Amino acid sequence: MDQPIFPAPPGYIVDLANPQRSGVAANFWVGSVGMVIAALFLCTRIYTKTVLARSFTSDDGALVVAWLFSIAIQAPILFQYARGTIGVHVWELSGSRLNSSFILINIASILYCPFLACAKFSLLFFYLKLSHLRWFKLCIYASMFLVIGYNFALMLPLIFACRPFMRAWDITITEGSCIDRTPIYMATAVLNIITDILLLVLPIPMIVKLQMPTKQKAGLICIFGVGAATCVTSGVRLALLFPMLKTIDQTWAIVMPGLWILIEANLVIITGSLPTMRLFFRHVAPHLIGESTLRSQSNKKGTDYANGSAQLSELKTIGSKKGTKSAYNRMEDDNISVGSDERTAAGWHTDRDSERGIVAPIEAGKIMKTETTVVRSDVVDVDKRERESWKVGF
């Protein structure tokens, strides 16, 4: 199969050695730069959750799996551009090169379903930590069932689209039949847009009820709002996909839909990592997010308290094996008594207490020693405000 299978339009001069190319530079730049940026965002999330929060949970695992799928989708696309099997007219491709192109296109289209499913599951697992209200959890579980249901239902027809199986990519096989995959591609895009909107709206009631400053609530909603960008990419991809599926010259027409697939595959990972970015910068560069002043004030008040409290030495033994001067700030997993109320010491907050209330569930600790301690209200207020913000990583 060294010759083209499809005839060229009248008057077109076929040049197999130097065919016309389209979209090569744009797709390489968008794909390679996007993968690097997405990997950096994912690494900051993993660092934040494993080093600062010391808790790698199901939402993190789901996003890592989604990232692996995104690489498996983008690699075949970029590989085909390097080989010159897409972004080329179908009549300037030999039969063997055309078959290899169709194989990789089929692989990428099949992997797209589990990729988006894992990305959505990562967000839904995160939502489970926002509230323990029964109705909210039922909505999340229903959303999970919807996501896994439609993705599984759409992936199976893509895998078994043809009889015999190899007819899906081998254009030399004329026996058998294939289903029309156009409705499947269209349904995938439409359902992804619908679930993107659903996942955008779902957490808003819980965020509004969080006990944190209005400015932080608005910022958190904006972070989730950035996820709406994936709705835009899905919509653009849907608009470009339909005309591509109606033409015989698909290796040429796939350039723009493929470009938006690369954008969406990386944007999903980037937006999925945004909720932990404030926490990351709070640790490495707090001045960039305007928290240096708050930290210095809080540390000053904590120092005053440490100098004025005779019972501080007793508290140092709780949650820390080393009795340093700042050990009272690192009480995490044990219960202490403040006044006459039993409190959880997880609220005493440092950089390594990342997202304690939501990322790493507080373990039931033993009461190592009970002390009645008078705590200055100004110190508690600062810690309380920070503790609430750490619950959502914002």
Automatic annotation (TrEMBL):
It comes from the Eukaryota. It is found in: Membrane. InterPro entries: Rhodopsin_dom_fungi, SAT4-like. Its main location: membrane. The chain crosses the membrane at residues 28-48, 60-82, 102-126, 138-160, 184-208, 220-240, 252-274. Pfam families: Fung_rhodopsin. Keywords: Membrane, Transmembrane, Transmembrane helix. It is a multi-pass membrane protein. Residues 45-282 form the Rhodopsin domain. GO terms for cellular component: membrane. Belongs to the SAT4 family. This is Rhodopsin domain-containing protein.
